[in-house]
């Protein structure tokens, strides 16, 4: 069954009024919650300074890609770095001194991301996550991974490793001399070990047609991936900003996890999709791949259902 989310004419009519479109006459004193249709570089001057706890930056990667008819063209490494530099310098005043930043990119974009990010933030790690989709290549290695750069404004920041543990199946369980499990749990669903998060993620599924979160956005991140970032680097009621919102995943997951949120996106269709997903998030608060307070490996849905 194809569960890809579509916009109906009724959706468009109902959701139009929820979008924030007009630039205010003066800078705002309180950060709004919702979806801004506009350019983040233009809106930044009107948003309150030091108001954001987590910045999720998922800009167009440095490659040729069409977003609902709008093309982003590949640039030189230096030109893309200069563009990122402008984005980061513009958004920096919005961040609290304790804020964290995650910047997404592919391998080629990463050559520009690091030198741009290190100019403004403390770069703490690079997460690499496996894309289980992708076409084969005849003259190069298949591109099957993407990067997320973890940065902070200062040395004081939120990081909750207990909130983002990964439940792995134990294939060769080790027992103590008395026969009890060592560092794993024996259950009627199988043998599992809850492991601390690393910077290599192999449990992410790219949204596809049978997932209720799927949209037609060409570079949509999964709710599970974004949930890891939000749970690790925020606390309830903290503010999450995504200035390249796309179809709304960051705002949707922030709402599901009890965080405040603001998304900025230029394309009207994507803004409306974000608002439709936010509407549905009030009815369906679960995140696929996250249950019992832990993240699960791929292909463990049966075990997850038995645990709920």
Q: Could you walk me through the main structural features you see in this protein, from its secondary elements to its overall organization?
A:
The protein is of the alpha/beta class and 308 residues long. It has a single domain, classed as 3-Layer(aba) Sandwich (Rossmann fold), CATH 3.40.50. The chain is 25% helix and 24% strand. It has eight helices and 15 strands. It has helices at residues 9-15, 40-43, 77-91, 107-117, 223-233, 249-256, 268-281, 301-307; strands at 34-37, 52-57, 65-67, 70-72, 95-105, 122-130, 145-152, 166-169, 185-187, 190-195, 200-201, 239-242, 260-265, 290-291, 294-296. The chain has an eight-stranded mixed beta sheet. The chain has a five-stranded mixed beta sheet with strand order 9-10-8-15-14. A two-stranded antiparallel ribbon has the order 3-4. A hairpin with a 2-residue loop joins β9 and β10. α3 (77-91) packs across α4. 36% of the residues are buried. The mean pLDDT is 91.
Rg, please?
20 Å
The averaged pLDDT comes out at 91
CATH architecture: 3-Layer(aba) Sandwich
| Number of self-contained structural domains | 1
CATH class: Alpha Beta
Question: What is the number of helical segments per DSSP (H or I, 4+ residues)?
Answer: 8
Strand order of the biggest β-sheet: 1-13-12-2-5-7-6-11
Q: What does the largest sheet look like?
A: 8 strands, mixed
Distance between the termini: 24 Å
